[in-house]
Specification:
About 45% of the residues lie in helices and about 20% in strands. By secondary structure, the protein is an alpha+beta fold. It has a five-stranded antiparallel β-sheet with strand order 6-5-4-3-7. A hairpin with a 3-residue loop joins strand 1 and strand 2.
């Protein structure tokens, strides 16, 4: 790997890291020596790239730093194509449209020599084999509701045919192969529950905000899932 490419990859690795990253981890991903990583990071810091940390402690890239946005590798382009293809097949209409727009923007921005990776990718995502049941609510509006931290009310029919009225605090929307799943805190049950979008009727997008911050509620939901997995493993 050329040194210029390696310097760029170090920035990319630090950009996606959520915690201080040890030099050993960077060296393992780049398949180079730890000494090379230390030398390259020193060079980046000398070029005013805002990297904090030191050998033995780990490194962090300060927020707000950016590079030319579309210095993409062939693998990154094919990853974007695969992701956009999947969203085009599985996402709601607004997300599918956004996926097409994303690919158009990438095509306009990358050099001519890289465009074949976009037009003729080496891997493809196949469309669903069966028709997905219709959703009972506007998923684009639901995603806005999740971002705003607002409540959602709806009528729900479970797998046994039992009907109920729910008010929930939506956490996230899961796009599965055959159905869409809404993860939420349910006021009726006083706990996290998962609802199939095709079993929802009479949705109401309420203006009421729930008391938790969306990120905090999402963290609680992840802990709930981890606890459930641990109990099943016992």
């Amino acid at each position: 790997m050329r040194r210029a490419d390696r310097l760029f990859q170090i920035i990319q690795i630090l950009r996606r890291a959520r915690a201080p990253l040890a030099g050993e981890a960077i060296a393992a991903e780049l398949e180079c020596s730890l000494r090379t990583v230390y030398r390259d990071i020193a060079a980046l810091i000398g070029q005013r790239v805002p990297i904090r940390g030191e050998a033995g402690m780990g490194y962090v890239l300060d927020g707000g730093y950016d590079m030319p946005p579309l210095m993409l590798t062939p693998d990154e382009i094919e990853a974007a194509v695969l992701g956009a293809q999947w969203v085009g097949h599985q996402g709601d209409p607004a997300l599918a449209r956004a996926a097409r727009d994303l690919l158009a923007k990438i095509e306009a921005a990358i050099p001519e020599k890289l465009r074949p990776y976009l037009a003729e990718p080496a891997a493809l995502v196949s469309p669903p084999w069966s028709e997905r049941p219709a959703d009972g609510l506007d998923l684009a509006a639901l995603r806005v509701q999740i971002r705003l931290g607002r409540k959602l009310a709806f009528a729900y029919t479970d797998a046994k045919g039992a009907a109920s009225r729910r008010v929930v605090w939506p956490v996230t929307l899961g796009f599965m192969d055959t159905v869409r799943i809404i993860a939420a805190w349910c006021e009726l049950r006083g706990d996290f529950r998962h609802f199939r979008a095709d079993r929802i009727a009479e949705p109401e997008f309420l203006d009421d905000r729930y008391p938790e911050r969306p990120a905090a509620l999402r963290a609680q939901w992840r802990r709930h899932l981890a606890d459930q997995r641990a109990k099943r493993a016992e």
